[in-house]
């Protein structure tokens, strides 16, 4: 082995282990047989255990040699023995190196083997994985296949019995399908397909028919519309005929057409008024005025309008964010206006009187408040500008006041309006009355609206309207006539003439000396400030809605002031007189019993004073009686022995049996006709 | 009765029931109303208890005089006298017990009856009214037994002096005549307006109120209210009351009188006006004192109003009864 030491170096360069002499020898042998010495081959022949023992031996020999060398070196020995030993050491070194190589080679081999095994295992492992994946994949596929729902299951097929009954044999193939479910399903599907095809055919045919019929309808429509102008012409031509025969069909139709758009209360009112006019009172006529299109717009279905509203709201909001928002006051104002909005259509009822004057009543419906209001106008045949004091009589604001007692028409009769007003800050409806009209209770009743005080259900009650119609119309006519009569009387009174009609002459003596010198109107304020009317005020017999007048009757130095309260319901309610006499001092009905008796004479005896029906003479008769009583009083009073001599201012002309009677020594104020004397009551 | 009629109502006469628990009042429409004093004076009196328990039309003309006997209420209408049983009235029955008319000479105008008094000695009713005469009726038989003539104008008021059994009458002619009831003859005639202390020519001469208390007589009307001593037939005091007095009474040591003006005057015998208590009506016609019943001792006054004032303490008005 030591001889190999030099030769070992060379093979180290070559990759394959060729460092042994065998290698050289092998090379030397020839190129034809490249015998490469593989130390691995040698490795397989050697036993690792033996190598290990060899290694140990070699190490021991080396150690021994070293020790010998050491000894020799220390003893100063000869270099030949040392060289010998050195050579042996070298040989041992070579052995060790070989062993080292072998060890390395064994290691490498072992590693390679492991590696290989590992690789094999890996490959197998991979294969296993692949297979597993494939299995999973296949499993999934199988599942999918199993889950697959064919569309055919969604098709509703006729039931099996029906199918077997209906389907023809070539489709149903019972012999096959009874056993095989799959075939059965297929057959059923076939049958379904066939049915559907058939039905599709039918459908197409029906569509075609429908088209044809449509066309026919269109044609007929065109034909009809072509008729329309012809009919119109005929209608137009017949108008004069209608008027001639006073059967205004067309007008009534038009009215009926427009009437469809009226709100329910106005409709009820129209129908009832027209019915009443036709049946009982030819002087009444009713018509509709206003904007029909707006009314139609109002009655459009709510969804459309809501959409519009929401759109417009959105737009508005966008705009508003750009502009400054309107102030709170303006918003409130708008809300108020909205709440008080009138329906665009209104009703006009005309009442004609015998003398030709007409009372026009305009009825409006306030939509959000659900009440009706009325405005009036009077048109007369003669000019009524004569009397100054009569200014208030036909004032459209107050003409219809208190048609029924205490129906002022200043507040809304609908209790729910109170809450609505609170929301928009309206305190009283009276502010808007002059604009919107008066919401009298009778107007609501005519429209069939009934409001109970607990705000219960309000409905358009036709029976209510009908039951009030006659009475209200009569009252309205009576009111107008009474006012016109008063108007005429006032112009006379202002000229200091008391117009006493022929039928009432018997109430008074032929000669009446005291005369009316002044007749003026007063306001409520002025009236209540008078001293001698306080008793009337305290008795609650005057209200702001009344009309107040002052009459001055004079005879000689005596001046009688009469403050008159005329209720709007004249002549149903008697005018009330309060007296104050200025003659030798001031006396009134409170201080002087005789003046009180005169007041009583004028105020209490309605049956005597009202004259012929309908009693429009009442006021003038009262005034005339007042003059007569003043005459009596002055003449009788002058007879009192006041100690003064000389001519009396008022010579006694009236005939009477006694000048005084009773504890209060009243004068005889009662006139007896036809005897013509005065007596006591 | 509407509010206008109530406004023009005047109360002319009053009379308390014998038991003192009811008041009857007559007005110018001929109605008599009976009020329950016990209800009105009770502590739980309400608005309703100040209304009459009974209100009916007794006569055609005004009821100028009411008088209560022990059992009946006598009322005077236009020339007729009706009697109503108090027991029946309290039970709200309005049937008259009897109605009698004095015989009048003229038939042109029926004279009113202004005053009625009872002569307890011979149980006769003495009435005076518009025909210038005094009629005396026997209560039991109902016959008008005598007529006292003398006045030249209608008679306003009557009064009876029990001790001397004399009838005093005051009239529109300004004379106070004194008649002897036993002989039915005039005894004296006083023309008050001729006495300067009393006369008030600006008003007139009529005598509308008379009252006597033993030897004293009160009279007033056109002339001032004056207190006369009958023995000497002269006025001892004259009361400076502004209006014309229509009724005056002696009460304890006071003289109470009502008339024109919305007050009750309390005067002393000496001639001073002690107090003037205000009332609701603007002038008063009648004053009545309920002395029969100590529980309901009130004074009531009525006049040109539909309300009758009730005074529990005579110094101020307590409340008003209303027709």
Detail the topology: elements first, then pairings:
The complex is a heterodimer of chains A (681) and B (323).
Chain A: H1 5-13, H2 21-29, H3 39-45, H4 48-75, H5 79-147, H6 160-166, H7 169-172, H8 174-177, H9 181-245, H10 249-259, H11 264-279, E1 284-290, H12 292-298, H13 302-322, H14 328-339, E2 345-352, E3 358-366, E4 371-379, H15 417-424, H16 430-436, H17 441-446, H18 462-494, E5 515-522, H19 524-529, H20 534-538, E6 547-555, E7 558-566, E8 576-582, E9 586-588, H21 593-603, H22 606-609, H23 618-638, E10 670-672, E11 677-679
Antiparallel strand pairs in A: 1-2, 2-3, 3-4, 5-6, 6-7, 7-8, 8-9, 10-11
Chain B: H1 3-7, E1 11-16, E2 22-27, E3 31-36, H2 37-41, E4 54-57, E5 65-68, E6 72-76, E7 81-85, H3 86-90, E8 98-100, E9 113-119, E10 124-129, E11 133-138, E12 144-149, E13 155-161, E14 166-171, E15 175-180, E16 185-191, E17 207-213, E18 216-221, E19 226-229, E20 234-238, E21 245-251, E22 254-259, E23 263-268, E24 273-278, E25 284-289, E26 299-303, E27 307-311, E28 319-322
Antiparallel strand pairs in B: 1-2, 2-3, 3-4, 5-6, 6-7, 7-8, 9-10, 10-11, 11-12, 13-14, 14-15, 15-16, 17-18, 18-19, 19-20, 21-22, 22-23, 23-24, 25-26, 26-27, 27-28
């Amino acid at each position: 082995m030591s001889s190999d030491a030099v030769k070992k170096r060379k093979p180290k360069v070559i990759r394959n282990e060729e460092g042994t002499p065998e290698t050289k020898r092998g090379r030397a042998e020839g190129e034809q047989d490249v015998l490469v010495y593989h130390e691995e081959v040698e490795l397989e022949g050697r036993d690792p255990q033996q190598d290990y023992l060899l290694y140990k031996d070699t190490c021991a020999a080396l150690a021994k040699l070293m020790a010998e060398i050491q000894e020799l070196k220390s003893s100063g020995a000869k270099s030949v023995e040392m060289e010998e030993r050195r050579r042996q050491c070298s040989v041992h070194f070579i052995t060790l190196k070989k062993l080292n190589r072998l060890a390395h080679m064994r290691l490498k081999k072992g590693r390679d083997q492991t590696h290989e095994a590992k690789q094999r295992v890996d490959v197998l492992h991979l294969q296993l994985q692949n297979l597993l994946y494939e299995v999973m994949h296949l499993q999934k596929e199988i599942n999918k296949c199993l889950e697959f729902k064919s569309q055919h299951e969604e098709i509703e097929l006729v039931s099996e019995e029906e199918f077997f009954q209906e389907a023809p044999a070539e489709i149903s193939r019972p012999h096959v399908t009874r056993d095989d479910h799959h075939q059965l399903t297929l057959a059923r599907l076939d049958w379904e397909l066939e049915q559907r095809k058939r039905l599709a055919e039918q459908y197409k045919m029906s569509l075609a028919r429908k088209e044809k019929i449509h066309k026919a309808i269109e044609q007929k429509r065109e034909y009809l519309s072509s008729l329309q102008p012809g009919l119109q012409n005929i209608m137009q031509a017949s108008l004069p005929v209608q008027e001639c025969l006073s059967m205004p069909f067309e007008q009534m139709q038009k009215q009926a057409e427009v009437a469809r758009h009226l709100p329910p209360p106005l409709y009820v009112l129209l129908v009832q008024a027209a019915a009443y006019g036709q049946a009982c009172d030819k002087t009444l006529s009713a018509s509709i005025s206003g904007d029909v299109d707006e009314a139609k717009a109002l009655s459009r279905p709510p969804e459309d309008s809501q959409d519009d509203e929401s759109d417009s709201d959105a737009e508005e909001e966008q705009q508003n964010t750009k502009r400054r928002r309107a102030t709170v006051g303006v918003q409130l104002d708008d809300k108020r206006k909205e709440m008080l909005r009138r329906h665009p259509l209104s009703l006009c009822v005309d009442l004609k009187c015998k003398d030709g004057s007409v009372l026009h009543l305009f009825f409006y419906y306030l939509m959000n408040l659900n009440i009706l209001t009325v405005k009036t106008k009077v048109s007369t045949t003669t000019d009524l500008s004569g009397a100054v004091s009569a200014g208030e009589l036909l004032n459209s604001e107050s003409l219809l006041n208190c048609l029924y007692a205490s129906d002022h028409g200043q507040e809304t009769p609908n209790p729910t309006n109170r809450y609505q007003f609170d929301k928009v800050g309206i305190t009283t409806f009276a502010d808007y009355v002059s604009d919107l009209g008066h919401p009298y209770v009778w107007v609501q009743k005519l429209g069939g609206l009934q409001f109970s005080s607990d705000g219960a259900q309000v409905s358009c009650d036709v029976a209510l309207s009908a039951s009030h119609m006659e009475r209200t119309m009569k009252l309205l006519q009576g009111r107008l006539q009474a006012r016109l009569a008063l108007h005429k009387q006032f112009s006379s009174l202002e000229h200091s003439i008391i117009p006493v009609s022929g039928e009432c002459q018997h109430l008074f003596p032929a000669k009446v000396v005291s005369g009316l010198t002044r007749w003026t109107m007063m306001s409520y304020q002025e009236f209540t400030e008078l001293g001698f009317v306080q008793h009337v005020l305290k008795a609650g017999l005057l209200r702001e809605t009344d009309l107040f007048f002052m009459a001055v009757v004079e005879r000689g130095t005596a001046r009688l002031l009469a403050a008159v309260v005329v209720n709007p319901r004249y002549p149903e309610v008697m005018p009330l007189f309060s007296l104050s006499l200025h003659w030798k001092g001031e006396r009134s009905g409170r201080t002087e019993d005789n003046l009180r008796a005169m007041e009583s004479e004028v105020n209490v005896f309605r049956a005597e004073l009202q004259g012929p029906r309908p009693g429009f003479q009442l006021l003038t008769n009262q005034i005339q009686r007042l003059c007569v009583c003043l005459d009596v009083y002055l003449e009788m009073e002058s007879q009192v022995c006041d100690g003064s001599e000389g001519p009396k201012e008022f010579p006694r002309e009236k005939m009477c049996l006694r000048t005084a009677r009773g504890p209060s020594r009243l004068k005889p104020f009662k006139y007896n006709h036809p005897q013509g004397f005065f007596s006591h009551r | 009765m509407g509010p206008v009629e109530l406004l023009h109502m005047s109360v002319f006469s009053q009379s308390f029931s014998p038991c003192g628990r009811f008041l009857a009042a007559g007005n110018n429409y001929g109605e008599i109303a009976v009020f329950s004093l016990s209800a009105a004076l009770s502590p739980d009196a309400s608005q309703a208890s100040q209304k009459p328990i009974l209100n009916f039309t007794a006569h055609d003309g005004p009821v100028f005089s009411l008088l209560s006997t022990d059992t009946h209420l006598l009322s005077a209408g236009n020339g007729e006298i009706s009697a109503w049983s108090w027991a029946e009235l309290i039970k709200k029955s309005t049937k008259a017990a009897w109605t009698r008319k004095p015989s009048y000479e003229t038939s042109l105008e029926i004279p009113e009856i202004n005053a009625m008094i009872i002569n307890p000695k011979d149980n006769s009713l003495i009435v005076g009214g518009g025909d210038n005469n005094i009629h005396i009726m026997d209560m039991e038989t109902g016959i008008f037994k005598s007529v006292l003539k003398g006045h030249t104008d209608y008679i306003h008021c009557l009064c009876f002096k029990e001790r001397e059994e004399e009838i005093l009458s005051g009239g529109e002619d300004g004379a106070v005549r004194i008649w002897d009831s036993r002989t039915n003859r005039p005894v004296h005639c006083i023309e008050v307006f001729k006495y300067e202390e009393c006369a008030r020519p600006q008003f007139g001469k009529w005598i509308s109120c008379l009252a006597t208390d033993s030897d004293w007589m009160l009279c007033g009307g056109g002339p001032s209210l004056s207190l006369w001593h009958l023995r000497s037939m002269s006025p001892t005091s004259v009361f400076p009351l502004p209006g014309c007095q229509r009724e005056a009474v002696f009460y304890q040591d006071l003289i109470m009188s009502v008339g024109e003006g919305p007050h009750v005057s309390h005067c002393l015998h000496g001639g001073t006006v002690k107090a003037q208590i205000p009332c609701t009506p603007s002038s008063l016609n009648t004053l009545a004192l309920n002395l029969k019943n100590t529980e309901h001792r009130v004074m009531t006054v009525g006049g040109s109003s539909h309300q009758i004032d009730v005074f529990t303490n005579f110094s101020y008005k307590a409340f008003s009864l209303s027709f």
